[in-house]
Amino acid sequence: MTDTGGRIRLEIDGAIATIVNDNPDKHNAFDDGMDAQLFEALAELRGRSDIRAVVWRGEGKSWSSGRDVGSIGTNLTELTHHELMTRGIRGIQQLWELEAPVIVAIHGWAIGGSFQRALLCDVRIASEDARFMLPEVGHGVIPDTGGVAVLQQMVGPGLVADMVLTGRRLSAEEALGHGIVSRVMPRDELESTAHEMAERIAAAPAVTVKLARRVLSHLSRPDVRASMEDELIYQTFLNRSDDYAELRAARAEGREPNYRGS
User: Does the model's pTM come out above 0.90?
Assistant: First the structure.
């Protein structure tokens, strides 16, 4: 799917690949179609031993504002909610099967599942206007892409609970202070910095990079996989829960919801 002009583009320049979120009218919000394009791009990269580093960036005003809420409930496949989530988890876990490290260059919003996907990558850098948010609980669901497990390893349970339970937004400087991103810079320097980092990685011995990533992954990945398995089960339950149905009904009817905790 290299450079096909879809809403996810995969561009190859020598040993460096660039994944581009290209749905700027919606701040690069993802729907099922963009998910499929992303997973196809990752599948292509899995088979490319010549790719030594990957940059993941976004067009327009944001890296990605999360899920395209207008697409929710419009799934045209015959897959159940559980099956769609399983496909999503398997698709994004391809990040871990790449030979090349992935550097995410974040500007504007990084929200919800998209923020979590960035957390599953190797390195995150941000422009000064970047903002991070996990708003799922306010929509009656839970974060379900594995990123919360990574975030807790980075920053500890206090900040994670604040972000998940209250939807607190984090600025680029706060994200840098907590180690969520490793560098913050002006917007016009973001992409060039990401590519300079990718070039430095691509110039290092390939087997050394591969084994260094393997050591790092062994430190954390078992807990992240376990968290993703829990999220799959709990999110499937929530999708059928009385409280979730009440939330949707209350919003449609313009009234306050009456939650029962079930």
Answer: yes
